[in-house]
């Protein structure tokens, strides 16, 4: 009797000891999470504290300048916006079309395998290599020069895998009976895709597009590589203005700068005063990417809740 | 009379009707084919991108290796391609890349693994729902911001601990890069562990194992191929990362294995040259393609190792 209870006691201590490991690991996990969270909060807070003094309307409406207190980000955010327009106009149709092809049309053959392996591999290629591709092909081979067009195309290629993967996942979630219903009514494959597949997957695709664009807007390396300038004190020509009159698409070939490059330029200057500008520009940049990422996360959350096929 | 007219016209009516349907079917078919070809063309853009990358890197590197022997490129310990006394040894850039990646992985792999195990096996539903999007945000911050943070916040902080630390160094760049990579590692690792079937955990719990024992001795080994994939992804992120290093590690080629020193990575070198005015066809122009090719080969090596590991360790349930 006593032997059994002693044995039980022993087992209980062993279990308690092992349970302590559970608790310890839980705390370790929380601590690891906290390192990430705290780093992020510190980074954000440090930029706010450092850059808050520079955030004013003038900061958004001034060109970069040699005098730090007058310098602003006008050419940077205009450049970023225009580059993003080109990127979206190229990446969204091409990416969605590629995703639709792979999911709805592609036969099981070697070509399909090659395309799929390619999309996976491209997601792992360092972004600066895209910059080299763009420098060799867009800037010199095609002669687009160091322009908004080259930059937009480069970033479009860069985020293409993101858009393709998001499109495929969104399409895969649509049950087969939706397609069968459409075919049973005599719809062709394209009609099925256009009227059913694309509308139902649009929220999922949008999530992917937003994440891709958020990544593109913060991407610096490939744009530096194609030769974006760090000091631009003019805006690309508006269509049908100026002397001689600019055409509708002249802004595409204009030199430009973007937000991350402007920030890189200010960060790498030795003068303290420019670091304040860098912090302010960084704050604006983080706010933009966070808003976009937050939007995508929220969209995904809503999506998961609402759809019941 | 009327019967003749009927006989003449009545077969013509359905004939017209049929041929019209056939024609409509043919245009419909043609349109479908054209659309399919267009979609295929869009899918082929990714193949074209890969071909373009290989073509441009190899083409410019071939010109480069006409001037510089491959032996010098691989063994010379100096990288001064733009000086009068030009040396073309890639080793200093490779050492900088490997040291900074090493520091980053020492941060990212343990942290990422712990977070993944915690989120998939320990965390209550609420914590996971909040933590996952937050980690995604951490991965969405532009790298130039991390570069700023490493140079102007982490380095001064580290200098309080290590007074002789120079303003540019691989350590702070690597640490911050590690934090940047954590979300990539943890999210892939967590997906892999969640994919482990519940029955394995139930079996383990039924044997009287605790959560910790189940996580470390059952779930993690079962998900080993996914974990390997997560680590490989982390490595190729670290090797290819550019802006943090261009800002915080200093842009001096330096053959060193000491993270306390400033050094330059392959990626930072490409940025440095691209920042200067780059005449097409000059030596500087070609060196960045040779450097880019080296970078691609290094990441390719890791990807192949990762693929082999995944194949070797693949668990079948």
From TrEMBL, chain A:
A Gene Ontology biological process term: phosphate ion transmembrane transport
Keywords annotated in UniProt: Cell membrane, Membrane, Transmembrane, Transmembrane helix, Transport
Matching PROSITE patterns: ABC_TM1
Gene Ontology cellular-component terms listed: plasma membrane
Bilayer-spanning residue ranges: 21-49, 74-102, 122-142, 148-167, 223-241, 278-299
Membrane topology of the entry: Multi-pass membrane protein
Transport listed as a keyword: yes
GO molecular function terms noted in the UniProt entry: phosphate transmembrane transporter activity
InterPro entries per UniProt: MetI-like, MetI-like_sf, Phosphate_PstA
Domain ABC transmembrane type-1 stretches: 77-296
Key word Transport present: yes
Subcellular location: Cell inner membrane; Cell membrane
Pfam families: BPD_transp_1
UniProt family annotation: Belongs to the binding-protein-dependent transport system permease family. CysTW subfamily.
Protein name: Phosphate transport system permease protein PstA
Organism: Oryzomicrobium terrae
Taxon lineage: Bacteria, Pseudomonadati, Pseudomonadota, Betaproteobacteria, Rhodocyclales
Chain's gene name: pstA
Automatic annotation (TrEMBL), chain B:
Function: Part of the binding-protein-dependent transport system for phosphate; probably responsible for the translocation of the substrate across the membrane.
GO-annotated molecular function: phosphate transmembrane transporter activity
Predominant location category: membrane
Location in or out of the cell: Cell inner membrane; Cell membrane
UniProt keywords, alphabetically: Cell inner membrane, Cell membrane, Membrane, Phosphate transport, Transmembrane, Transmembrane helix, Transport
Protein name: Phosphate transport system permease protein
Family per record: Belongs to the binding-protein-dependent transport system permease family. CysTW subfamily.
Cited InterPro entries: MetI-like, MetI-like_sf, Phosphate_PstC
Domain of life: Bacteria
